[in-house]
Design goal:
about 575 residues, alpha+beta, 5-stranded mixed beta sheet, EC 3.1.4.1
Length: about 575
C-alpha cells in the first residue's frame, strides 16, 4: 500500500500514514486505524474505560467487520438499513455484522421512533408497510408521519414494527452503539468536531497540502480528561440549544466559568452569547443582560450595554461603555462604544463627549458606465501602463505577512499543532497567540529593517506554494503582483500593517481596501503605491473598513475612498 507521510515525528513516535484512496478500496479503514493508533498513544493517560474498551474490541475484529464498522461511523446517524450496507470490498454485510453484534458494537434489535423509521425508509416503502393505519395514503411523507404520530407514540423494536405493520419489511435495521465514543476519538485527534475523517482523503488526493510540523508526545489538543469532558459538555449544550431545548436545562448543563483554559472558556462564552442573543430577540432583556455579563465573547460587553440601554439603566450602561473605551478587547469594541456613548450622555443629561477628529481621507468621485463589478470598472478606469492596478482586498497584505512570518506562524509550540491536517496553529484566534510567539515574530519583522524581507518572502512564495495557510490565498497572489508589491511597498508601512494584524487577527485580517495602484517608475523615496476602497451606488463603508482606513490615514499611508455613480445616458453628461 502506498503511504503518504503527512508529518514528521520526533521522540521515536511512528509516522502517520495516509492511505492511497485511489488504489486501496479500504483506504478509509487504514485512515481510521491510524487515528485509533495515534489517539491511543498520545492520550493513553486520559482515555476512559469506554474508549479503551472500544479500541481493544475494534483491534480484535476481522478485517471485513472493521471495514463495515468504519463505513457506518463515517455515515450520518446511528441507525442503518442492512440492505444499504453493501460494499464490494466488504462482501456480505450480515456476515460482517455478526462479530460487531457479538461484541456489542452494533445492536441488531434497536428501538425505533416514528421519526427514525421515516428517516430510514422511502415514502412508498412506508405506505406499503403501514398502509393499514393510513386514511390518506397519497399524502406527502411529512403529512403521513403526522397522521401516524398518535398511533405510534413509543419506540418499537424491529419485530414490533413488523407486527404493527402486519407484513414483513423490506430490510432489517441495526444501530451503531459506539458513535459517541468514535466522536470523542475524532475530537481528541483533531482537537475540534469541525474536521472530518475526509481530511485524510483530501490530503491523499493532493487537494490540500499542509505544512510539515514536528510533533512530540505532548502534541495533543487536551492535557487533561476534565478538558475533554468540558469541551464535550459545551458542544452538547450548543447542539441542544440549536435544537430548541429548554434554555434552563441547557444553561444548567453548561460548565461553570473555566478560568484555567482561555480557549475552552471562549467556547463556553460563545454558547452563552448565542443564548443571550436569543433571549434579547425574544424580549427577555433582564435575562439577556445577566447572560452577557457572564460571557467573554468579543461582542458580549457591547450587547450588554445595548440591553441595559433598552432597560433604561443608563448609568450602568455608561459605566460599561467607558470601561469598553478605556480597556477595549478590540478596536471594534472601542469604535462601537464610541457610537453609543453620546446617546447615554443625552439620556443622563450630560454634555456630549468630545472625540479626537479622525485624519482626513482622500476621496474620488467617479461617474462610470454601468458594470457587473464596480471594483473592476474602477480598476479599468484608473489603470495605465505606468500605474498598474490590482484587485487585492484582504489578500495582499495578509499574504505578505504570512510569507514573511511563516516560521513564527508554524512554530511547533505546545498546544499549537497536534495533527497533520492543520492549516494553521490551533491558538491562532486566541489572545495568547502573539504573546507566546513574540520573539519569533520580532525576528521575522526585524528583516524589514535588515533588508532581507524581499528575499525571504520570495523564497517562501516558491518553497511553500500551495500549502494551506491562514493568511496566504495562493490563487489571488500572482508573481507580477508580488514583484510590484515588493518593489513599491515601504518596509515601514509593512511593519505597521503586520503589527496591527497581530493585535487582533480575527478582526484585522479583513476590511482592507479593494484595490492597490502601483507607481513603479516613481523616484526612490516618493510614494509608489495607493490603496483604494471602492464604494458603488448606495454602498457605505463598513466598520472594519473605517478602522483600516483611519489607521492608514493616521500613519500617512496613501489610501483613497472612491465613490462611484453609474452614468445614465438619458440624463446626459
Amino acid at each position: 500500500m502506498n503511504s503518504i507521510s503527512a508529518c514528521t515525528m520526533v521522540d521515536d513516535l511512528p509516522r502517520l500514514g495516509v492511505a492511497d484512496s485511489l488504489n486501496d478500496p479500504r483506504y478509509y479503514l487504514v485512515n481510521f486505524e491510524n487515528v485509533v493508533t495515534w489517539v491511543g498513544e498520545r492520550y493513553d493517560d486520559l482515555l476512559d474505560d469506554d474508549e479503551r474498551d472500544f479500541i481493544t474490541r475494534f483491534q480484535s475484529l476481522p478485517v471485513p467487520s472493521k471495514a463495515l464498522l468504519v463505513r457506518m461511523v463515517m455515515r450520518k446517524g446511528e441507525h442503518f438499513r442492512v440492505d444499504r450496507l453493501a460494499y464490494d470490498e466488504i462482501g456480505e454485510p450480515r456476515a460482517a455484522l455478526s462479530p460487531l453484534i457479538e461484541l456489542g458494537l452494533v445492536d441488531d434489535a434497536p428501538r425505533l421512533t416514528l421519526d427514525q423509521l421515516f428517516d430510514l425508509f422511502t415514502r412508498d416503502e412506508l405506505v406499503s408497510m403501514l398502509g393499514n393505519h393510513l386514511v390518506r395514503p397519497r399524502d406527502r411523507k411529512a403529512l403521513l408521519k403526522e397522521a401516524l404520530r398518535p398511533v405510534f407514540e413509543t419506540p418499537l423494536t424491529f419485530d414490533e414494527w413488523q407486527t404493527a405493520a402486519g407484513r414483513l419489511m423490506v430490510s432489517e435495521v441495526v444501530r451503531l452503539t459506539i458513535m459517541a465514543v468514535c466522536e470523542r476519538l475524532r475530537l481528541m485527534f483533531f482537537g475540534n468536531l469541525r474536521q472530518q475523517f475526509s481530511e485524510f482523503v483530501l490530503a491523499d488526493q493532493g487537494i490540500y497540502h499542509f505544512e510539515v510540523v514536528p510533533f512530540t508526545k505532548d502534541s495533543r489538543a487536551f492535557q487533561s480528561r476534565v478538558d475533554i469532558e468540558r469541551y464535550w459538555q459545551i458542544h452538547e449544550c450548543r447542539e441542544r440549544f440549536e435544537a430548541g431545548h429548554d434554555l434552563d436545562e441547557v444553561l444548567a448543563a453548561l460548565p461553570p466559568r473555566i478560568d484555567n483554559s482561555l480557549w475552552l472558556e471562549a467556547r463556553r462564552g460563545r454558547v452563552l452569547h448565542a443564548i443571550a442573543r436569543d433571549c434579547e430577540r425574544q424580549g427577555e432583556l433582564s435575562r439577556a443582560a445577566e447572560l452577557y455579563a457572564g460571557s467573554r465573547h468579543a461582542e458580549a460587553r457591547i450587547r450588554h450595554i445595548r440591553v441595559l440601554e433598552r432597560l433604561g439603566e443608563h448609568g450602568r450602561a455608561l459605566a460599561l461603555c467607558l470601561e469598553a473605551r478605556e480597556t477595549p478587547t478590540s478596536e471594534a469594541e472601542r469604535q462601537q462604544a464610541g457610537r453609543i456613548q453620546p446617546r447615554l450622555h443625552r439620556a443622563l443629561g450630560m454634555a456630549k463627549p468630545s472625540d479626537a477628529l479622525e485624519a482626513p481621507v482622500n476621496r474620488y468621485d467617479l461617474v462610470l458606465p454601468r458594470s457587473p463589478s464596480v471594483e473592476r470598472a474602477v480598476r479599468e478606469f484608473l489603470e495605465t501602463p505606468e500605474a498598474p492596478v490590482f484587485y487585492v482586498e484582504n489578500t495582499l497584505i495578509n499574504a505578505l505577512f504570512g510569507l514573511l512570518c511563516w516560521e513564527a506562524i508554524f512554530a511547533p509550540l505546545p498546544g499549537a499543532f497536534f495533527h497533520p491536517f492543520q492549516s494553521g496553529p490551533a491558538d491562532l484566534m486566541r489572545p495568547e497567540f502573539y504573546s507566546q510567539r513574540a520573539s519569533y515574530f520580532e525576528r521575522c519583522l526585524a528583516r524589514l529593517e535588515e533588508g532581507s524581507w524581499r528575499d525571504v518572502i520570495l523564497q517562501h512564495y516558491r518553497d511553500k506554494q500551495g500549502i494551506q495557510s491562514p493568511f496566504v490565498h495562493w490563487g489571488a497572489l500572482s508573481e507580477a503582483l508580488l514583484t510590484l508589491a515588493l518593489e513599491c511597498l515601504p518596509p515601514a508601512h509593512l511593519r505597521g500593517w503586520f503589527e496591527r494584524l497581530l493585535t487582533d487577527i480575527r478582526a484585522n485580517r479583513a476590511g482592507m481596501p479593494d484595490l492597490i495602484r502601483f507607481y513603479p517608475n516613481a523616484p526612490e523615496g516618493s510614494t509608489r503605491y495607493e490603496m483604494i476602497e471602492v464604494k458603488g451606488p448606495g454602498d457605505r463603508l463598513q466598520d472594519n473598513q473605517r478602522r483600516w482606513i483611519a489607521f492608514c490615514a493616521r500613519h500617512d499611508m496613501p489610501v483613497t475612498v472612491c465613490h462611484v455613480r453609474w452614468h445614465d445616458p438619458e440624463s446626459g453628461p
